[in-house]
Design brief:
Mean pLDDT: 94
InterPro entries: ChsH2_C, NA-bd_OB-fold, Thioester_dehydratase-like
Number of helices: 1
CATH class of the largest domain: Mainly Beta
Structural class: mainly beta
CATH topology of the largest domain: OB fold (Dihydrolipoamide Acetyltransferase, E2P)
Shape: globular
Strand content: 35-45%
Protein name: Putative nucleic-acid-binding protein containing a Zn-ribbon
Pfam family, one: OB_ChsH2_C
């Protein structure tokens, strides 16, 4: 059987502050003073205002499970050994939503609206840390 190495994110000048913070087990996202709003995904201009005023600020990463699906078939050959995969969207307390994966939970225990907390997965061979979520209770 052929095995595939899982794809890993690639840092860019725009996204590096996010990935570097995860490497420190912290979560930093952008905040726009001109629109008084938190912003995610990383970008160079603020949404709505197009201002160049985006600032990197740390957040707790705490949030609510906004949506999820239980993938019982691999989403690709790279994930053949990772089923069921609990794909999720978490809404951070600050507002933006983040696509992620739930861990340390039975799929039957997942509920929309449940409180979740961040879990950091380090991949030193790739110099990257991935952000996952687990139930906060």
């Amino acid at each position: 059987m052929t095995t595939f190495e899982r794809p890993m994110p690639v840092k860019t000048p725009t996204t590096a502050p996010f990935w570097d913070a995860l490497g420190e087990h912290k979560i930093r996202i952008q905040y726009s003073p001109s629109s008084d709003a938190w912003v995610f995904y990383p970008r160079v201009r603020a949404p709505r205002t197009l201002a160049g005023d985006l600032e990197w600020r740390e957040i707790s990463g705490m949030g609510t499970l906004y949506s999820f699906t239980v993938a019982r078939r691999p989403v690709g050959p790279h994930f053949a050994d990772a089923v069921p995969q609990l794909l999720a969207i978490v809404e951070w307390d600050e507002g933006p939503r983040f696509s992620t994966e739930m861990v340390n939970v039975d799929p039957a225990d997942l509920q929309i609206g449940m409180r979740v907390r961040p879990v950091f997965f380090d991949y030193p061979e790739h110099d990257v840390t991935m952000l996952r979520y687990e139930p906060a209770a």
